[in-house]
Design a protein that fits this description.
Blueprint (H helix, E strand, L loop, with lengths): L2 H5 L17 E8 L3 H10 L8 E8 L2 H10 L3 E7 L7 H11 L7 E6 L8 H6 L4 E4 L5 H21 L4 H14 L4 H16 L5 E7 L6 E6 L10 H4 L1 H13 L3 E2 L3 E6 L4 E8 L6 H32 L7 E2 H8 L10 E8 L2 H8 L1 H18 L4 E7 L2 E7 L5 H9 L2 E3 L2 E3 L3 E7 L7 H18 L5 E2 L2 H22 L4 E9 L5 E11 L5 E2 L1 H10 L3 H22 L4 E6 L1 H5 L3 H12 L6 E6 H6 L1 H14 L2 E7 L6 H4 L6 E4 L14 H13 L2 E5 L4 H10 L3 E3 L9 H10 L1
Parallel strand pairs: 1-2, 1-3, 3-4, 4-5, 11-13, 17-18, 20-22, 22-23, 23-24, 24-25, 25-26, 26-27
Antiparallel strand pairs: 6-7, 6-10, 8-9, 9-10, 12-14, 12-17, 13-14, 15-16, 19-20, 19-27, 20-21
Helix pairs in contact: 3-4, 7-8, 7-11, 8-11, 12-16, 13-14, 19-21, 21-23
Pfam families: DUF3369 (PF11849), EAL (PF00563), GGDEF (PF00990), Response_reg (PF00072)
InterPro entries: CheY-like_superfamily, Cyclic-di-GMP_PDE-like, DUF3369, EAL_dom, EAL_sf, GGDEF_dom, Nucleotide_cyclase, Rev_trsase/Diguanyl_cyclase
Protein name: EAL domain-containing protein
Length: 729
């Protein structure tokens, strides 16, 4: 344990030179912690402490299991100092559960301790099991440790006395347990007053009030009778006589009673609190004793409420920015769903390429950018409702229709953000949803706003896109198509067709391109232009691409066994190239089916090449070294720089059909000629796709094009037709 950790128990410690008198009676204290140093430091800090004429006798356990074993044998343990995290993250909480349930030990007092402030015990355990106190180890100065211990011992002694009391005492215990389970402060106050009125034998008319640290006023927390509706009010404005009596109790730190009322000071760690109750007699001494015992648990209940509020804040607030989180937004936005009302608009805001900031400049800079965005939104839209951090880089808020100017919002957000020494221009995408489109549940409202946001991101629309019902229909259609694609692919219903590729010189068959087909079951097919992008979005394309490669390998071997050895070209998508070890995976597939590398060609589009150029070049080089050929498909339609072409390990350029369809009459053929010439200078073959007329074929041949494929020669066909095509030749 570090010296800092050792010091915390001795901070504010007062040293005395008085002679030590050994006590004859003891309070048995069990220290449960897996760190031996904590045992030593705790004993040292509590050395010499006496309470009610008795000293302290310590017992040690270094695990939850050992603690249970000691408690099972020794029923005289008064207080347990219990570490939350030991052999498991919840070992301490499990000890609490076993002590109360299995051992049925309800009188031992438990003080939870943890070395990490974030390891807060579950609210359910705090609520259901009697825990005396909860502290981080760094909070426990010697004075606070002694205070917590004495409070626990006093509570232990009182609980022990309760076991020997009358039925009235049992009623108090039952009442105390009921209030410890409450998390609503108003309901808690009602229950406190109701049970106190039973103890004092009077009507339930009174209030509970408090004065928080740093406040200069006393606030009503809840009440019964004619005090019930004063929740949150300043006590001075409710009743001046009650105010004076409570203030006097606070000043003197003790209970007071008159012929018509009683005021009890509630011990609380973080506030001054009091219970005021009207009664028509002076409380009896026995009633005051019972009340004192009850108030011990009332104080714990108030502190547990505060702990619950902290837990709730942790669950509903974003730790970094301090604003609401996604969960809180979903729960609170539901109140804005009103049929036929369209006063508000929900703005969902996404930061473009935020990951680049985190990866390039560090998370600290990224965090400051996020905080800066929240500050700017608060400054410019102070009337916005439910400002929330919906995702890592997504924010949302609700604002009145007339207060939102999208152009102005973009201008405000377009001003660069300062983070440390960096000045960063940030780009955003906006999805908007009008109140008339809010859904009955918060999660559904968020979903429709995300539909608009995703549309804005897809189209790179900067001004923002409003949600419309047809977007929902399109989304439902997309989801349906993807679901059906998953279903059909899993059941091997997809097909691979093949389109022959010929040499322009002698029209000999040199290979064919493997093309994916998706039959609908009624004789028609869904276009690859429709389902391939959806497969990419859904993460299916990697598995489908691997399946197509395997089908092509098997087809190549079947043709080879028939005496026809040709190369089959397989298209590769961007996601496939991003899979780690893609080149090795292709190699393994070829080995699995015994296919020669020269007989499988991979076709990649310019978008694949330019997505992650360095990664693609390395992968293509691995494949080429293996002996495979690589072609760039649809060459000339993308956005690649010619400076990269020379560095790419390629074998073939494929001229897109867009540069072929109007040849030779409506197109000069300049681009086709440029691609063919470029290929020749780089030592690459060129193949033209989409050739449908003899004029086009002759024109391309005159330009020096090497190979051709198109409907003029053969359409894409299933395997049996391909075999017929080959046999006829």
């Amino acid at each position: 344990m570090s010296s800092d950790q050792n010091d915390f128990l001795f901070f504010e410690q007062d040293y005395e030179d008085d002679a030590v008198i050994e006590p004859t009676k003891f309070w048995d204290i069990l220290i449960v912690d897996d760190e031996p140093e904590i045992h030593s430091v705790t004993k040292l800090a509590l050395s010499g402490v006496e309470f009610w004429g008795a000293g302290l006798r310590f017992h040690d356990a270094y695990s939850g299991a050992e603690a249970i074993e000691i408690l099972a044998k020794n029923n005289n343990i008064s207080v347990i100092f219990l570490d939350v995290v030991m052999e498991t993250d919840d070992a301490g909480l499990q000890v609490v559960k076993r002590v109360r349930d299995e051992l049925n030990n309800q009188h031992v007092r438990i003080i939870l301790r943890t070395g990490q402030a974030g390891n807060t015990p579950e609210e359910k355990v705090i609520r259901e099991y009697d825990i005396n106190d909860y502290k981080t180890k760094t909070e426990l100065t010697r004075s606070k440790l002694v205070t917590s211990l004495i409070t626990a011992i006093r509570s232990y002694e009182q609980v022990c006395q309760l076991e020997y009391q009358s039925n009235a005492m049992n009623t108090i215990v039952s009442a105390s347990k009921s209030i410890l389970g409450l998390t609503d402060i108003k309901q808690l106050c009602k229950e406190i007053i109701k049970h106190m009125s039973i103890i004092l034998k009077c009507s339930p008319r009174g209030l509970v009030c408090s004065k928080l640290d740093g406040d200069d006023f006393i606030q009503v927390l809840g009440g019964c009778g004619h005090y019930e509706n004063y929740f949150g009010e300043k006590l001075i404005n409710v009743d001046s006589k009650v105010f004076k009596q409570v203030e006097s109790c606070f000043d003197l730190s003790k209970h007071q009673h008159t012929d018509s009322s009683a005021t009890f000071v509630l011990k609380s760690k973080h506030r001054k609190a009091a219970l005021y109750i009207e009664c028509d007699h002076v409380p009896l001494q026995a009633q005051l004793q019972f009340a004192e015992i009850f108030l011990t648990n009332v104080s714990v209940a108030l502190d547990n409420i505060r702990l619950f509020v902290k837990l709730r804040d942790a669950a509903y607030k974003d730790v970094l920015t301090g604003i609401s989180n996604r969960t809180n937004f979903i729960e609170r936005v539901e109140r804005y769903q009103k049929p036929h009302v369209n006063d508000y608009v929900f703005v969902l805001l996404d930061i473009v390429n935020f990951a680049d900031i985190n990866n390039g400049l560090g998370q600290e800079v990224g965090n400051k950018v996020l905080i800066g965005i929240v500050q700017r939104l608060k400054e410019n839209y102070p009337t916005a409702k439910l400002l929330s951090r919906i995702g890592a880089d997504v924010f949302g808020f609700i604002i009145r229709q007339g207060e939102l100017d999208l152009k102005k919002l973009n201008e405000q957000l377009g001003v660069p953000f300062c983070a440390e020494e960096h000045t960063l221009p940030i780009d955003f995408r906006l999805g908007l949803c009008q109140q008339q489109d809010f859904q009955s549940s918060g999660i559904d409202t968020l979903k429709v706003a995300y539909i608009a946001l995703n549309q804005a991101k897809k189209t790179k629309h900067k001004e923002g896109i409003y949600y419309s019902v047809d977007m929902q229909d399109k989304m439902a259609w997309r989801i349906g198509i993807i679901r059906q694609l998953r279903h059909d692919f899993a059941r091997n219903k997809l097909e691979v067709w093949y389109q022959p590729q010929l040499s322009l010189d002698d029209l000999s068959l040199i290979g064919c391109e493997a093309l994916l087909r998706w039959p609908t079951g009624n004789g028609s097919y869904i276009s690859p232009a429709v389902f391939v992008p959806l497969a990419e979005d859904a993460g299916l394309i990697v598995d489908i691409g691997q399946w197509v490669l395997e089908q092509a390998c098997q087809q190549q071997k079947r043709l080879e066994n028939m005496g026809t050895e040709i190369c089959i070209a397989v298209n590769v998508s961007v996601p496939q190239f991003k899979v780690k070890g893609y080149a090795q995976n292709v190699k393994n597939t070829l080995l699995k089916y015994g296919v020669k590398p020269k007989n499988i060609e991979l076709e990649v589009t310019e978008s694949v090449v330019m997505d992650e150029l360095e990664t693609v070049i390395n992968t293509l080089r691995e494949l080429q070294e293996l002996g495979m050929e690589v072609a760039i498909d649809d060459f000339g339609t993308g956005f690649s720089s010619l400076s990269y072409i020379q560095s790419l390990p390629l074998d073939r350029l494929k001229i897109d059909r867009a540069f072929i369809k109007d040849l030779p009459n409506d197109d000069t053929g300049a681009i086709a000629a440029l691609v063919i010439s470029l290929g020749a200078k780089l030592g690459l073959k060129t193949i033209a796709e989409g050739v449908e007329t003899q004029e086009q074929a002759q024109f391309l041949k005159n330009l020096g094009c090497d190979e051709v494929q198109g409907f003029m020669y053969a359409k894409p066909m299933p395997e049996h037709e391909l075999i017929e095509f080959i046999n006829k030749r």
